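Please fill in the sequence for the structure shown.

STRUCTURE ENCODING:
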């Protein structure tokens, strides 16, 4: 199976384990029933925003959902780390480390020039995050407050709020996100 099929299978399994109908998951996630149906049949690749909404409905982080789709181990070798590309923004998300039984996750993101992604506050409800810019410039807007981050800058998130990660430059931006479940 490929990542799209693995993800489709995991989403359906998470939904069925809870005895939720497509309509119930749609209501809880605010993702349309038709979209969920297509995702569960691996007909479309969901965007980051859609995956975050679905994961949050299950009480999971995006990373935990992706790891459950792929399986996991304590040792995270570079050549086996799951990599996922957002079809809307083109951002590339590498799951550097995650385990359902470990409170910390590490994610590496490459955000292309001129792109942005907005994640809902619900995706941050049970986690704490720190963002560290490795290369480039990142404008992060959290609950209406704007932060301009450059190489080496690090920002710890506050209470859950809608967050926009934006790269308004002509060069890609690479940043690391460390998450801890609370």
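FILLED IN BY: designer on duty
SEQUENCE:
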């Amino acid at each position: 199976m490929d990542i799209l099929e693995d993800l489709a299978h995991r989403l359906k399994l998470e939904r069925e384990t809870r005895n939720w109908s497509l309509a119930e998951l749609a209501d809880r996630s605010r993702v349309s029933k038709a979209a969920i149906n297509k995702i569960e049949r691996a007909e479309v690749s969901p965007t980051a925003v859609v995956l975050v909404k679905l994961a949050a409905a299950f009480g999971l982080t995006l990373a935990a959902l992706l790891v459950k789709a792929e399986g996991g181990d304590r040792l995270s070798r570079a050549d086996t780390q799951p990599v996922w590309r957002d079809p809307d923004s083109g951002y590339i998300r590498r799951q550097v480390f995650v385990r359902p039984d470990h409170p910390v996750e590490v994610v590496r993101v490459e955000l292309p020039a001129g792109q942005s992604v907005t994640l809902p506050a619900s995706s941050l409800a049970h986690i704490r995050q720190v963002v560290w810019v490795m290369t480039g410039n990142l404008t992060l807007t959290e609950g209406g407050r704007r932060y301009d981050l450059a190489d080496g800058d690090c920002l710890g998130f506050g209470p859950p709020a809608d967050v926009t990660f934006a790269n308004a430059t002509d060069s890609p931006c690479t940043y690391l996100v460390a998450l801890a479940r609370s």
